[in-house]
Amino acid sequence: MRVLAFDFGASSGRAIIGQFDGEKITLSEVHRFSNDPVSIGGTVYWDVLRLLFEIKQGLIKAQESGGFGSVGIDTWGVDFGLLDGQGKLLENPVHYRDARTRGMVDEAFKLIRREEFYQKTGIQFMELNTAFQLLSLRRQRPELLERADTLLLMPDLLAYFLTGVKATEYSIATTSQLIDIHTRSWSEDILNALEIPRRLFTEITPPGTVTGKLSLEVCEECAVPPVNVVAVCGHDTQSAITAVPCPQGDFAFISSGTWSLFGTELLEPIISETSLEMNVTNEGGYGYSVGFLKNIIGLWLIQESRRQWAREGAPYSYAELERLALSEKPFACFIDPDAPEFVPHGNIPARVREYCERTGQYVPRTVGEVMRCIYESLAMKYRRTFEKIRDCTGRDYSVIHVIGGGTKDTLLCQMTANSCERTVKAGPIEATVLGNIAVQLMAAGEIKDVAEARRIIARSETVTEYAPEETAAWETAYRKFLNVTEEQLN
Question: Does 180 participate in catalysis according to the annotation?
Fold first, then answer.
């Protein structure tokens, strides 16, 4: 069986055919395109109509390559579009890095206690979350909310453009911080406290549900049959978790990309003083599993640094940056990757230097020194998060599975093994796409359950192992990292 997965990241998107022969899944990319935010009038938007155009190109190319039996869409979390009463898009969705949510977390805590908010949703507090985007609209543009009839998060919005069906998939809904993690429905208490209209929200659809078929208009325009559109795990993180090649469960993982999501999979949420203190998230997954994880700034630091150096006339490749990092002295200085100054676009290398100067450390000057600082700080942050995950769950994990695009970064994988003192198994690279495809195949009855899907993915993909090295030196350096970063937090 052949199915078509659309996978949207923060900078690019792909249309990939997954073909299942009963034993293995093979992937074939039929279309790739950029996903470029557009800034106008002081607001950063997603170019959603361009994304729809690229989806249609993907449909056409997939049909020309041999056809497909269903379609699934996954994207990043939290962002959304608003439709009016006639189903028309009111404006382009706003980018989660837009400044409109600045200060909204503190404003929300004036309306509902932090502890109660977390008890209801179990979701990590981040200014970019849907709840705080909507609070900013309530405060700054209430007329837009008054005009709106329906809110659809990004994968559901794109699926609506293809089918005309308004539905909200469970995993993407939980990223909004508006879902009651216990009842798996919209939290009336949170919505009322933030004065967000309940009428905006559709019913929740579990992952693996066939929500509709390609509309007649889309079929005629793209010369494709009216195949099923499946609500896969719409949040790309949960699609990736579905593809962790560990069928027996009870694993630790890092979904490594622009963001790093470090966590484990549980049957029930963990909501405790410890999980609140570490600001960990309980995100909904396939089969109503819980992705118990921490959102960490990941390869963004490397990607944005590389863009800055290119702007300065030095277009380094990722391989060159890795080589330069390895040439420098280890453990010279550290940053907290999640410090707020590292979130916005801009001159990350300059911000790294400013952080180090402010904290009384050696200030990195060369490209290699900055890169070494970033790499080692990410690996140390992973260890700190790993310790907190283990404290919350009461479990230990002998292996950390690294999945997603970050598996190609061999230096970071090795440093993660060194820092965490655990074997790292890296792969699959295309975890998100494989999870998307696996849910479509389960919806079609081709695969029995998620355990079988993970066994199939393990057979289909190559996994690279990294054993811990130089652990004594990393242990000493970790104490230095904690002294620098914990002081900043306090």
Answer: no
